[in-house]
């Protein structure tokens, strides 16, 4: 089964993402906070296998951020994309990479609202060492590109989806700035 990411983006994820982004203004990273989890994708996490892992479905891999008691307080999903093309059997390229994340609004309450966000890289931003961050609820997620191959397809740059590697680190976000 092939998932149409465009449908997913316009559907449940887009609605949740919009709601989540609306609630994360004013967040900053707490530079002194120790990471709660670090995931090296694509090896990290579990395969979604056409099912949900936390809030994310159906393809890709999802890793879970847990608190000291083992409660699920966040998730990182590797990966979504936009502008995809199949260039040959079993190989695809895309123009935009998306790492989807979600974090509880209150880390001390694993039943609090789950806020979703994404870190997106256009093909022009994809380079080894490139780093972006986003707040999702009470978590801050840092994404670092570890590897990617860029190629020209039909006269435009694309990234080879089978070559992407990234490290995602989750840490508590700083309290909102008044």
How would you describe the overall organization of this protein?
- The radius of gyration is 16 Å and the shape is globular.
- A hairpin with a 5-residue loop joins strand 4 (61-66) and strand 5.
- It is mainly beta and 178 residues long.
- It has helices at residues 5-10, 12-22; strands at 28-29, 37-41, 46-47, 61-66, 72-82, 85-88, 91-94, 96-104, 114-122, 131-136, 139-147, 150-153, 156-160, 165-174.
Task: Walk me through the topology.
Elements lengths: L4 H6 L1 H11 L5 E2 L7 E5 L4 E2 L13 E6 L5 E11 L2 E4 L2 E4 L1 E9 L9 E9 L8 E6 L2 E9 L2 E4 L2 E5 L4 E10 L4
Antiparallel strand pairs: 1-14, 2-14, 3-4, 4-5, 5-8, 6-7, 7-13, 8-9, 10-11, 11-14, 12-13
Features:
178 residues; mainly beta; 5-stranded antiparallel sheet; 14 strands
Entry summary:
The protein is 10% helix and 48% strand. With 178 residues, the protein is mainly beta.
Outline the biggest β-sheet. Answer: 5 strands, antiparallel
N-to-C terminal Cα separation, in Å? Answer: 47 Å
What portion of residues is helical? under 10%
- Total separate domains: 1
The total strand number stands at: 14
Strand content: over 45%
Mean pLDDT, nearest integer? 84
Question: What letter string, H or E per element, gives the SSE order?
Answer: HHEEEEEEEEEEEEEE
Low-confidence stretches: 1-31
Radius of gyration: 16 Å
Helix count? 2
- Characterize the overall form: globular
Oligomer type: single chain
State the secondary-structure class.
mainly beta
């Amino acid at each position: 089964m092939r998932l149409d990411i465009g449908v997913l983006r316009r559907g449940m994820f887009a609605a949740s993402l919009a709601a989540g982004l609306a609630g994360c203004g004013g967040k900053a990273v707490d530079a002194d906070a120790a990471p709660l989890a670090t995931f090296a994708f694509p090896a990290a996490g579990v395969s979604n296998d056409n099912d949900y892992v936390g809030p994310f479905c159906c393809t890709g891999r999802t890793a879970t951020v847990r608190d000291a008691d083992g409660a699920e307080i966040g998730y990182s999903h590797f990966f979504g994309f936009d502008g995809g093309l199949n260039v040959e059997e079993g190989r695809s390229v895309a123009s935009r990479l998306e790492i989807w994340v979600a974090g509880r609004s209150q880390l001390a309450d694993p039943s609090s609202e789950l806020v979703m966000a994404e870190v997106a890289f256009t093909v022009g931003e994809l380079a080894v060492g490139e780093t972006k961050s986003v707040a999702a609820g009470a978590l801050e997620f840092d994404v670092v590109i570890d590897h990617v191959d860029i190629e020209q397809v039909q006269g435009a740059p694309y990234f080879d989806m089978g070559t992407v590697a990234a490290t995602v680190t989750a840490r508590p976000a700083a309290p909102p700035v008044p």
